[in-house]
Design goal:
Length: 372
């Protein structure tokens, strides 16, 4: 450690001691969060182990949640007295400003009506299209063309790989309220190192699709059954380069979509049954097990493997770690039910679909479209 430039000292080897963190220093954000979290814990809040910026408090049947982003806080819950109380404590300690009912937060637009709460990123999408010059582009009905096969060396290298990475990064953020973009973004994010012109063309199609669905987002209805249910699906050997499968799952709390993912498998699956079984394992680990949940799978073999301990020898090559789905099913932590392929909601997370199938599954995914 050395003295800052311009500081004169009569004694050699002297340094400054930081007694109070100042805004703008590297230590400032850490010190601020440490002070704020310590204060919230003293009020009886518990910090989440999954997201350290989330604090919750449960008292009898009352629940309060507090989410932090630097110095912006969101309060939610069914205990109005607790919400008023924690506001008063925060104001006494830090001098806060109450902005009222949540309408906009980090690019997320929140709206309420008699049907429920809607989340979308319309302004974020408009800014993305404006910055890329696609605000007046011709819209397309789907984010990707069916049967498109992107791979590492399918055309010449794109002239500006940094621009490609920046655009994919912005697409990743918009998937917070747009699960319909998850598969396309997952495909494009594989080529961040050396994108080609064909990859960039596929990216521009996603932008044109966003132009076609600016106000699209998620609807969380006011009336819904209290039941955890999920859909899991896989598209075997869909990657032309590695021949790995793409799995997708979506988890619902009643009719509200709360979790989803489109992901390439880390290993090659030898059969469609193995690919579906791996996807089932990933989904089964995402379910909170206070009450039995429901998982839907459209592959008979994968369901048989999960239900039958001594299923035929062709399953012996599947790693032991994958059989956690079977263990959870035997412990009655969830019920595994069949579903027709055309009704498989997670299908939209594993492959590019025709417009008819795509728009048939969108409402089932909890995605709504508003005039935009």
């Amino acid at each position: 450690m050395t003295l800052p430039l311009g500081v004169q000292s009569s004694q050699p080897n002297m340094v400054c001691k930081l007694n109070k963190s100042l805004y703008g220093l590297k230590q400032a954000s850490r010190q601020w969060f440490a002070k704020l979290s310590t204060f919230l814990i003293s009020l009886g809040y518990k910090q989440s182990h999954h997201d350290h910026s989330l604090f919750t408090k449960i008292h009898n049947s009352k629940f309060t949640a507090l989410l932090i982003y630097v110095d912006d806080l969101i309060l939610a819950g069914n205990d109005n007295n607790e919400i008023i109380s924690v506001k008063n404590h925060l104001d006494a300690q830090f001098k806060i400003k109450d902005l009222g009912t949540l309408k906009y937060f980090l690019g997320l637009e929140v709206a309420r009506n008699h049907k429920g709460i809607t989340l979308c990123q319309r302004k974020y999408a408009l800014d993305l299209l404006f910055d890329t010059g696609f605000l007046h582009s011709k819209p397309v009905p789907t984010p990707m063309v069916k049967h498109i096969n992107l791979h590492d060396q399918d055309s010449t290298l794109f002239h500006d790989p940094l621009l490609y990475r920046q655009l994919v990064g912005r697409l990743l953020y918009i998937t917070n309220t747009r699960p319909d973009l998850s598969f396309a973004t997952q495909q494009l994010s594989q080529f961040m190192t050396n994108p080609t012109t064909r990859h960039h063309q596929a990216l521009t199609r996603v932008l044109r699709y966003i132009k076609n669905s600016l106000g699209q987002g998620l609807l969380y209805p006011t009336t819904s059954t209290i039941q955890i249910k999920g859909f899991t699906d896989s598209d075997r050997a869909s990657c032309p380069t590695t021949r790995r499968s793409i799995s997708g799952f979506c988890m619902f709390f009643g009719d509200s979509l709360v979790s989803w993912k489109s992901k390439k498998h880390p290993t090659v699956s030898r059969s469609s049954s193995e690919a579906e079984y791996r996807a089932l394992t990933i989904a089964s680990c995402k379910v909170p097990y206070k009450e039995p949940a429901i998982l839907y799978c459209d592959n008979d073999s994968a369901r048989y493997i999960a239900a039958n301990v001594v299923f035929h020898e062709r399953t012996k090559h599947i790693e032991i770690g994958c059989h956690i789905a079977r263990e959870h099913l035997q412990n009655k932590l969830y019920h595994l039910l069949p579903i027709h392929t055309h009704e498989q909601t997670a299908d939209i997370l594993t492959k590019a679909l025709e417009p008819s199938s795509f728009y048939y599954l969108l409402p089932m995914l909890g995605v709504y479209a508003s005039a935009g």
